[in-house]
Amino acid sequence: MLIPKIMHCKSKLLFNIVERSSQLTMQSKKPSVLSRCITLAKELNIISTPILMRTPTYPQWVSLKSCFYNKLFCLKKIETASVEYIQHYSEATEPFRAEWDFILTDGSKSDTSTTFAVTNSDGATISVGALPTYCSAFTAEAAALHEAVMFASQTSKKHLICSDSKSVIEALQNPKNDMLLINMIRNIIYEKKDAIKIMWVPGHAGIKGNEVADERANKARMQPLHFFNHFTPKDLRRYASNYLAGKLTHDWAAYHHYYKLNNPRGTKPIFPSDSPCRGIRTFVRLRIGHAIPTHSHLLNGVLKPPCSYCNIPDLSVQHLLDECPGLSQIRTTVFGSSKPSDHLKLANSDNINAFLKFQILAKLNI
Ligand SMILES: [Zn+2]
Questions:
Q1: What is the DSSP string of 208-270?
Q2: Measured in angstroms, how far is the CA atom of residue 308 from the centroid of ligand 1?
Q3: Mind listing the domains of the chain with CATH numbers?
Q4: How far is the CA of 160 from the centre of ligand 1 (A)?
Q5: What's the CA-to-centroid distance between 348 and ligand 1, angstroms?
Q6: By CB neighbour count within 10 A (0-12 exposed, 13-18 middle, 19+ buried), where does 362 fall?
Q7: Which pairs count as long-range contacts for 41-48, CB under 8 Å and 24+ apart, including other chains?
Q8: What confidence tens digit (pLDDT) does each residue in 55-86 have?
Q9: Spacing, Cα 113 to ligand 1 middle (Å)
């Protein structure tokens, strides 16, 4: 899926090509992959536009370990009661109370909205915003953290930022993670590494500030908000895949072909690994209704031959399998009283072997 790579270009060369493609007003007969991705992004109403990613400003060999304060990481959520968490939180934050200001962040995701909130320890809102609905809870948490570090970096005070997103904190600590949003947060932390610390706190464990941020992010769903165009590559990949899968299902519903009778839902068949290639080939050709006896005349440029068993002129796969009187005995031997074409619906070993046996007994070159 190229859309995230186009939106956040890492290469100047690619960015220039993307810019040229997006400025083309004439639609060519055979659009390039880039043009099709840009068109799809417009169809999906993705609000971001392609940008050239800057390399991180902080030297990557510098460890930001001292900026993360994860004393509560070791407490397992299943084994720790809320009261214990509150006590541990209180003890862990004690050394910071005198000199550091506390900031709490939280993200919220529902089917219809993705919002986040940043509050201070008194519960006052520092920032609250909405993201496109295709953004995940992870993106909302990261966006909240980004707003928090931005706020913290603009003051001369020291800030302890509490987030309940383990995955965002782990992403920040993982040097291999080079998502734009994560890099933006890291850049700010690096520039203010003596004045910003990020601490993980458990969500929904009764920790006062976290509950307030959570409530604020949830309430934000009902309010007109400032819109942020953050996203992660995974957000766009998932959004575009769902859209394309829906479109494919819709197109398949309107599609009329013999194959649809054998695969009504349009699902991709998974063939058993122990079936012979020849058997799978026969099965696939019969399933789509294109076999040598019924279609080879098109390649050979001759008239369609009649059925070699009963001489009817309109030869089809369905005729050979279900109707041809010349093959009735073989049909009964292989399939008993069941209708052979019904066995094309399921790609299992029994069905594949049955059609192979039918082909061999009927001396058919399929
Ligand atoms: Zn026939």
A1: HHHHHHHHHHHHGGGS--EE-----HHHHHHHHHHHHHHHHHHHHHT---HHHHH-TT-PPP-
A2: 6
A3: 3-53 (no CATH), 65-238 (3.30.420.10), 258-362 (no CATH)
A4: 82
A5: 27
A6: buried
A7: 41/3, 41/6, 41/7, 43/243, 44/134, 44/239, 44/240, 44/243, 46/3, 46/7, 46/132, 46/134, 46/231, 46/236, 46/239, 47/132, 47/227, 47/229, 48/7, 48/229, 48/231
A8: 766 777 777 788 888 877 777 777 777 777 77
A9: 60
Compute the distance from residue 346 Cα to the ligand 1 centre, in Å.
Answer: 25
CA of 314 to the centre of ligand 1 (A): 9
Cα of 279 from ligand 1 centre, angstroms: 22
pLDDT tens-digit series, residues 164-209: 898 999 999 888 888 889 988 998 998 888 889 998 888 776 677 6
Structural contact between residues 102 and 152, judged by C-beta atoms closer than 8 angstroms: no
d(CA 104, CA 198): 10
- Length of the chain counted residue by residue: 366
User: Ligand 1 centre from 334 Cα, in Å?
Assistant: 17
Model pLDDT, residue 352 = 95
Is the model's pTM score more than 0.85?
no
